[in-house]
Specification:
Pfam families: HupE_UreJ_2. By secondary structure, this protein is of the alpha+beta class. 56% of the residues lie in helices and 20% in strands. The longest helix has 33 residues. The protein is elongated, with a radius of gyration of 29 Å.
Length: 429
């Protein structure tokens, strides 16, 4: 009897093995959860070939009949229940295919869809049982890997996504067991802290944002004579002007960060990024020849308005709503400001010192020309969608930012000290 069972299993493997083997050469399916205030959104990803084998249909998302059949298949192979016996609604959202890459097999066609799980009782949102055998019922060697990619109250984002389990065939029992989803309640403090850290990280990695504000502040300590930059304006005047520019930039991006995150204003990201690169070019030209002297606060506010749209896109991608969005905007903006002020505090003292030496004009013009070159590289990159040697080089150079600040400080001290020594020698003579 035992020998007979083995023969039957060998026969089944011979008959269906070619399909299973083909599917096994492709990556496992993935389900990425986004926990929102009233629903859980699953981004389900699986190789298109695997889905066609599992669903036994040829998938063409251009045909409505194919789309409808696929939705019915997905709904048939998913169910949710919880300890409160609430009724869950499952809704299939947008579906599309894309070309993806796997380390072992290279490029392949991937099917992606959004699945909305809406509980009858919101108290079940973080504690439920998910039954799902999409493709698994036909392909035993496939698995669905589950992770939480967004959970605001627990401070989870794409950068620190958490694996929560796997749905696959249990070989000893020959069954597919459901996934027990048990998530911590979390708190608004964790969410706020994460957004604050994300804001700091955004500025830390935002080379273009940093370069804009630094370049705009570069000549802020100078006077203008005959439409040219002249000597040092004085410590008190310089600090006051620097504060006004920084405050104006902060006010500008704070406004659009708020309205952009709420979806009240929208400009395509490519357009925003091109304008930001252009703003850097304009600030570089201004550092060589004053274009808007005494009007820097208006320029800072205007360009801050544009930079804020880029900031808001980060929050929009997180798909946060309600009070959590308000707290996210506040935390994210505070993070931006803290990191921005930190960078400014590292650079401005050296600009103030160097503004008082004759050699500053050479440093200022050289720095402005390099920034203009970087901005041109970014403009080309964002218009064409392809990196170029300038944009790549700038990012590599900025990895050395701490060393560049140290070199700036050393140069400022040397030039300022040298000028003081020369002035003292002239007075004594």
């Amino acid at each position: 009897m035992y020998i007979t069972k083995i023969k039957w299993w060998l026969l089944l493997i011979c008959i269906f093995g070619y399909r299973w083997a083909g599917a096994h050469s492709l990556p496992d399916s993935k389900a990425r959860l986004s926990v929102q205030s009233e629903q859980v959104v699953i981004q389900f990803r699986t190789p298109l070939e695997v889905l066609e084998i599992g669903s036994k249909m040829h998938i063409n998302l251009q045909l409505q009949q194919s789309v409808d059949s696929l939705k019915q298949y997905l709904l048939l192979h998913m169910a949710v229940d919880d300890s409160l016996n609430s009724k869950w609604q499952i809704v299939i959202g947008k579906m599309f295919t894309q070309e993806s890459t796997d380390i072992t097999i290279g490029k392949f066609q991937e099917f992606v869809c959004e699945i909305y799980l809406v509980p009858g009782n919101v108290n079940s949102l973080r504690n439920f049982t998910l039954h799902c055998d999409i493709v698994l019922h036909q392909i035993p060697n496939q698995s669905i890997l589950f992770s939480v990619e967004q959970d605001w109250r627990n401070g989870v984002t794409k950068d620190n996504a958490q694996q929560i389990g796997v749905i696959a065939w249990d070989i000893p029992s020959g069954k597919i067991f459901p996934l027990q989803v048990r998530l911590d309640e979390g708190s608004w403090i964790k969410g706020f802290k994460t957004m604050f850290t994300l804001g700091m990280q955004h500025i830390k990695e935002g080379t273009d944002h940093l370069l804009f504000i630094i370049t705009l502040l570069l000549p802020a300590c100078l006077l203008v004579e005959n439409k040219k930059w002249s000597g040092f304006a004085g410590l008190k005047v310089s600090i006051y002007k620097l504060l006004k520019i920084v405050t104006a930039f902060t006010a500008g991006h704070s406004v659009t960060l708020l309205v952009g995150a709420w979806g009240w204003i929208y400009i395509p990201s490519q357009v925003v990024e091109i304008i930001i690169a252009a703003s850097i070019l304009i600030s570089a030209i201004h550092a060589v020849k004053p274009l808007f002297y005494s009007k820097e606060i208006f320029i800072a506010f205007g360009f801050g308005f544009i930079h804020g749209l880029a900031f808001s896109q980060t929050l929009t991608e997180l798909d946060i709503d309600g009070v959590n969005l308000l707290l996210s905007v506040l935390g994210f903006n505070l993070g931006i400001e803290v990191m921005q002020l930190y960078i400014i505090a590292l650079t401005i003292p050296w600009f103030i010192l160097m503004s008082q030496v004759q050699q500053f004009k050479y440093f200022r013009n050289l720095f402005a020309c390099l920034v203009a070159l970087a901005s041109v590289g970014w403009i080309l990159q964002r218009v064409t969608g392809n990196d170029n040697f300038i944009s790549i080089g700038v990012e590599k150079i900025f990895l050395l930012f701490p060393w560049l600040i140290a070199m700036l400080g050393a140069l400022a001290l040397v030039l300022y000290g040298y000028q003081k020594i020369c002035s003292k020698s002239i007075r004594e003579a």
